[in-house]
Amino acid sequence: MTFRFLLRGNAERISDSCRLAILGLFLGGFCLTLGAEAQVDGMGDAPSAKVQARINKLEEEREAESSKLAVVHLAMQDLYESLSKTYAEASSGQSAAVVDELERILDPAFRAAAQTAEKTRGNVKKTSGAFARELPNALRRLENEFLKTLVSLVKRAALKTSRDEAANLTDFSPRDFAIAVARQAFAGKVEFGDVWNDFVVPKSKLAKQYQEQRGVVQKLDERITVLKDPKMAFTIGAPKNMARIPGGSYTVESKYGFVKKRRKPKVIAFYIDLYEVTHEEYWKNYYLNLKEAADKEAALPRSQDGKAIWFQEPTSGEYQPLPDMMRWPVTGIDCVSALAYAKAQGKRLPTEVEWVAAAAGSPKDSWLYSWGRTYATGFCNDKKAGRGTPAPVDEFKAGRSHFGVYQCCGNVKEWLATTKKGKDFKDEVPRGKNVVIRGGSYLEQQTGVSLLWRWELPGSATRLEDLGFRCAQDILGAKRKTR
To answer: What is the pTM of this model?
Structure first.
């Protein structure tokens, strides 16, 4: 649909910058407020009657506001189509109405500039200056709706034409000048979608009304979503498929593994992936973008005995995941490749402290599992689940953490940006150092998938079929210290 330019050019642009900068800093309290509204009557699988009544009321309100949005949307589509058609005509010189209007309004400014050119023997600076002084008054006389909508483009084209032709203005007629301005403004070198984004949307009252109405519907959607699932509160304002983990002091404990200790470090608010990175994401978003054969060889997922986990296409020799594996977490890669993937997406690996914070209950509590203090059958993909393979990353919803993060316990172990001695890294995996791994996998018993499970393995020399990762991201404006 041609109307996509509005959405691509503004609404999503605003979402990427402003929401990360503003909502990212202040969402902590907002999340708790939204969560509290839904938790008044408990956090069971189904909302209570009281909460359901609120949901029903909000859904009715959303339906009414969505109808209003649809009306404005159609009006925006009509405006886009109308202006696009006129722009095409003006670009090809077939719009007499545009040239007539430009001749009418620019005539006084043109004559003033022409007189100056004659008096000053074609002094470019004085001639274009005379035109520029008269131009604002000329533009106020615009009546053509197409030109009024694109007045910034017209102004820019008129000034450039005046500068380019200043020495020759006495040889031009007002109409010739108007045609030159039209050609400069609507030469067809720029797609109308870009003109729409750059000139129409920023000043269009209808576009502003659309964005405001879209915001109303979006807020209602968010409230309904959180009432139905309180844990979704932490995704609001976060990048797609990520959760915002509030800052605070979290209990980091390890009883099983090489290091057994308990501490309560402070965490600065950050974003973390809701899901482990899948084979499909790793393949499409990273592996296929590698140009050098050596880089692809290093990044290829392999089992512990060195065999490729992916299928090799006989004709091309290219590797790719089997269809059934696409939604499984990618495994068989070392920490170096995991970090390289994260950086390629503008993210990083979570530190051990961050991972535990995201997997835990809350800063005020210490849970043994992401869902609570005691083991529960069917809440994670461990050995007892009996699959014998990883599961799709969005399964086992009941086992999500307090912040809505999936499968911190079980499914696959996860690489973290922390070395054996607790030192965090961000841009490069330290050579010769063991890296922390947490989370357990589908091969582990209930002890191995607990939040107290901690191991360290060589970051550049370890590939396991039950070891993957997820990504984290700094929040704009939140200072993060690397120890």
So the answer is: 0.75
C-alpha distances (whole Å) from 158 to each of 108, 125, 194, 195, 375 are: 13, 15, 20, 16, 73
Residues 286-338: tens digit of each pLDDT: 999 999 999 999 999 999 999 999 999 999 899 999 999 999 999 999 999 99
DSSP 376: -
Rounded Cα distance between 396 and 329, Å, is 14
Choose among 191, 240, 210, 151: nearest CA to 7: 210
pLDDT digits (tens, 9 = 90+) for 191-222: 899 989 998 998 889 999 999 999 999 999 99
What is 407-431 written as a DSSP string? -SSSSSEEEEEEETTS-B-SSSPPT
List the beta bridge partners of residue 474. Answer: 270
92 — pLDDT class (breaks 50, 70, 90): confident
The SS3 of residue 446 is coil
Q: At what angle do helices 174-185 and 96-119 cross, to 10 degrees?
A: 120
pLDDT beyond 90 at 41: no
Amino acid at 176: D
Nearest one of 90, 91, 138 to 110, comparing CA atoms: 138
At residue 262 the predicted structure's pLDDT band, cuts being 50, 70 and 90, is: confident
Its sign, for the CA torsion 440, 445, 448, 449, is positive
Rg (CA), the chain: 30
Classify residue 279 as exposed, middle or buried by CB count within 10 Å of its CB (0-12, 13-18, 19+): buried
Helix runs in 233-382, H state only: 279-285, 293-299, 335-344, 352-359
Q: What is the largest CA-CA distance in the chain?
A: 94
Q: Are 147 and 99 in contact (CB under 8 A)?
A: no
Whether residue 383 is predicted with pLDDT greater than 80 in this model: the reply is yes
Residue 408 CB coordination number (10 Å): 28
User: Which of 136, 150, 145, 126 lies closest to 105 in space, CA to CA?
Assistant: 136
- Dig out the tokens for 283 from the structure: 């393949």
Dihedral angle sign, alpha carbons of residues 315, 317, 318, 319? positive
Looking at per-residue confidence, does 164 or 390 come out higher?
390
